[in-house]
UniProtKB/TrEMBL annotation:
<feature type="transmembrane region" description="Helical">
    <location>
        <begin position="251"/>
        <end position="273"/>
    </location>
</feature>
<keyword id="KW-0547">Nucleotide-binding</keyword>
<feature type="transmembrane region" description="Helical">
    <location>
        <begin position="142"/>
        <end position="160"/>
    </location>
</feature>
<feature type="transmembrane region" description="Helical">
    <location>
        <begin position="285"/>
        <end position="306"/>
    </location>
</feature>
<keyword id="KW-1133">Transmembrane helix</keyword>
<feature type="transmembrane region" description="Helical">
    <location>
        <begin position="68"/>
        <end position="86"/>
    </location>
</feature>
<feature type="transmembrane region" description="Helical">
    <location>
        <begin position="106"/>
        <end position="130"/>
    </location>
</feature>
<keyword id="KW-0067">ATP-binding</keyword>
<feature type="transmembrane region" description="Helical">
    <location>
        <begin position="224"/>
        <end position="245"/>
    </location>
</feature>
<feature type="transmembrane region" description="Helical">
    <location>
        <begin position="9"/>
        <end position="28"/>
    </location>
</feature>
<keyword id="KW-0812">Transmembrane</keyword>
<protein>
    <submittedName>
        <fullName>ATP-binding region, ATPase-like</fullName>
    </submittedName>
</protein>
<dbReference type="GO" id="GO:0005524">
    <property type="term" value="F:ATP binding"/>
</dbReference>
<keyword id="KW-0472">Membrane</keyword>
<feature type="transmembrane region" description="Helical">
    <location>
        <begin position="40"/>
        <end position="61"/>
    </location>
</feature>
<feature type="transmembrane region" description="Helical">
    <location>
        <begin position="191"/>
        <end position="212"/>
    </location>
</feature>
<feature type="transmembrane region" description="Helical">
    <location>
        <begin position="318"/>
        <end position="336"/>
    </location>
</feature>
Length: 390
């Protein structure tokens, strides 16, 4: 009965999300936030992507009804879509057509509170419970409760603030009409925000420890989510910097969509579809990322150095340095790519082999009278470079 009810609720999320997306686009168009037909098309495509993520969460719920990962995926996207809708509603009711719709201040308050669990609680819970829906151990219950309590504390501090402090509703009077002591609000905020950051960090540590202890399918699942989560710190830092520089929209998009690949990887992993492709993805990312950085450094360094050397002969505006650097990069591309790929493959093989067990076996054979064999790890890189099947 409970499983049927859960599946029924999960299917309701799809039409609800569709209505919220269409309503948000319509209100944003009335507010003037979407310029022209091209803006509408972009927002519709973005809405379809978000709807696809909700469908992914629903699919995980149906395939793995006892695993909360599907609910986290669907809940995070639905909450983000609802937050965008209530923000557009609040802007229309308070600024575009004041008084035309009821509850504008309430919607403004909700829009400032609903994004907090999306940005902090959802990824932290995903890191703690992925992939089987259980904590890594009983001791991690403290971290789980820390995530829940600090998120609630932060939301309560925002709900008690007499005036809203986030764009586009900065200065709007809180509709709850409360006027608590300022020290209480500051104390709750001081506990909530750093507490959420600490709980998020501890949840990431839990995922890393689980990855180190995992084997087989679970290890491949955790590799996917760890690879996508590696983007989060950089995107979050860029979003915070953009926000404080005055680019609130850019900061919000970076903070929101940096978490989307993690959701996709989580759903992809729980369904266990082509898990072992992650080794190819990581290898190619390392190879071509390192290759791009090296070639860029060689190119710009070559251009700058050759221009300085050739300026007495060919002049400052000569294109000879650019042509020579381009030809050098074209000649070095394949050799560098092979070297980096060889290094990445050797590293993967060396990290995967049970080094201690092989050494113990060789020592045992030597004690029993067999001739001592050379350490295979000293010969493996040479063998890989000589055979190179890739």
């Amino acid at each position: 009965m409970i499983v049927r009810a859960a599946r029924f609720v999960s299917w309701i999320t799809l039409p609800v999300t569709l209505v919220l997306i269409l309503g948000g686009i319509y209100l944003s168009k009335l507010n003037g936030d979407i310029p022209g037909a091209a803006g509408v098309v972009v927002n519709v495509l973005l809405g379809l992507v978000l709807l696809g993520f909700v469908a992914l969460g629903v699919l995980v719920v149906h395939r793995r009804p006892g695993n909360p990962v599907g609910w986290i995926i669907a809940g995070a996207i639905v909450t983000a879509v609802a937050s965008d809708f209530v923000q557009s509603y609040g802007v229309y009711a308070l600024y575009t057509e004041p008084g035309s719709l009821p509850g504008g201040a309430v919607m403004a308050l909700l829009s400032t509170l609903m994004f907090i669990p999306v940005l902090f609680a959802a990824p932290a819970l995903l890191f703690l419970l992925f992939p089987n829906g259980n904590l890594p151990g009983r001791r991690w219950r403290v971290v789980l409760w820390l995530v829940i309590l600090t998120t609630c504390t932060t939301m309560v501090s925002g709900a008690l603030d007499p005036k809203l402090d986030d764009a586009p509703f900065k200065g709007v009077v809180n509709p709850l009409g409360q006027d608590p002591p300022r020290t209480l609000i500051d104390t709750l905020s001081t506990i909530g925000w750093p507490g959420m950051a600490a709980s998020f960090l501890l949840a990431a540590i839990a995922m890393i420890l689980r990855l180190r202890r995992s084997r087989g399918v679970e290890r491949q699942q955790l590799k996917w989510i760890a690879a996508t989560a590696a983007v989060l710190p950089f995107a979050s830092a860029a979003g915070i910097i953009s926000y404080y520089l005055g680019y609130e929209t850019v900061g919000g998009l970076l903070a929101t969509f940096s978490f989307v690949p993690v959701l996709f990887a989580a759903g992809y992993d729980v369904l266990r579809y082509r898990l072992y492709d992650i080794d190819v993805v990581i290898n190619r990312t390392l190879v071509y990322g390192s290759l791009t950085v090296m070639l860029a450094l060689l190119y710009f360094g070559g251009v700058a150095g050759l221009q300085r050397l050739l300026s007495p002969v060919a002049g400052q505006d000569s294109q000879l340095a650019i042509v020579a650097s381009t030809l050098a990069i074209a000649a070095l591309f394949n050799p560098l790519r092979r070297r980096i790929q060889d290094f990445a493959r050797c590293r993967d093989v060396l990290s995967a082999l049970p080094r201690r067990k092989v050494r113990a076996t060789l020592d045992t054979l030597a004690r029993r009278g067999f001739p001592r064999l050379p350490d295979p790890w000293l010969l493996l890189p040479e063998a890989l470079l000589c055979s190179r099947p890739w």
